[in-house]
Design goal:
alpha+beta; 12 strands; elongated
């Protein structure tokens, strides 16, 4: 597929990329006239999976939700947001996950409590303010995680369940507007990609792309992947759910 055969078309692609925090120039488009070539070049620059970049450039964005889905409304955007999540195996600061927007700006900071039986993770905003904690709950048949507010009150539960093909997970919570919400993962965490779907409407609210593994990831057992969040959906909430899914996967795989 050829793209950007003229400067106007190239500028439109640059604008699309900019909305997702991707650094793209008209010269990049004109020197990479096919979508495959441009996506590969931009993937290398942004450290995003090629499939994620192709989805952005090909305008395969997620549709806006009819009503906001949020625990933290300050992280809701009218535009689709692309996040990059990286699990950190060794960290002097204690950070266990690095979660940024595609443009490199920090979304949230996640600090793991290594000596805690609950595996408690403290989540802070980009300025270091405490937002919430992620805690593993015991005495459940299936692996269960809770998201707790700064006062220790559970505001979301993420529970795994066995399915015919792999394991699944469901997050249940009452959103910031008092509405009961259930979000389910379609496609297991072991798959290369998966969707987080609103159980009531059936709409995809986030798409996880795990198709890119660097050599460093393979050596150190890290995971780096992209998450596209639909307009109107809380990006911090989606990031928290991905952390829960990742922790569940690590436990089940014995990491």
């Amino acid at each position: 597929m050829r793209i950007g055969d003229d400067s106007v078309g190239a500028m439109r692609l640059v604008e699309v990329a900019r909305k997702h925090g991707l650094s793209l120039t008209v010269a990049d488009v004109l020197s990479n006239p096919s979508l495959d070539a441009l996506a590969s070049a931009l993937s290398f620059k942004s450290h995003l999976p090629v499939t994620t970049v192709m989805g952005i450039l090909g305008h395969r964005n997620l549709d806006p939700v009819a009503e906001p889905i949020a625990l933290f409304e300050q992280y809701v955007s009218r535009e689709s947001q692309t996040l990059v999540l990286r699990e950190k195996v060794f960290s002097v600061s204690g950070d266990s996950f690095e979660i940024k927007f595609a443009n490199g700006a920090q979304l949230i900071k996640v600090r793991g409590a290594w000596m805690s039986l609950s595996g408690r993770k403290k989540v802070e905003d980009a300025q270091g303010n405490h937002l919430f904690d992620i805690v593993k709950e015991h005495l459940h048949i299936h692996t269960t995680y809770a998201i707790e507010d700064t006062h220790g009150k559970k505001i979301c539960e993420v529970k795994s369940s066995l399915a015919l093909l792999g394991s699944k997970a469901t997050a249940t919570f009452t959103d910031s507007r008092g509405k009961a919400v259930a979000l389910k993962m379609q496609g297991g965490w072991y798959d290369q990609s998966a969707d987080i779907v609103d159980d009531k409407s059936g709409q995809t609210v986030a798409r996880i792309d795990r198709k890119l593994l660097s050599g460093r990831d393979l050596v150190f057992g890290q995971q780096t992947y992209a998450v596209v969040v639909a307009p109107g959906v809380d990006a911090a909430l989606i990031a928290a759910l991905c952390i829960c899914f990742d922790e569940k996967n690590n436990e089940e795989s014995g990491q």
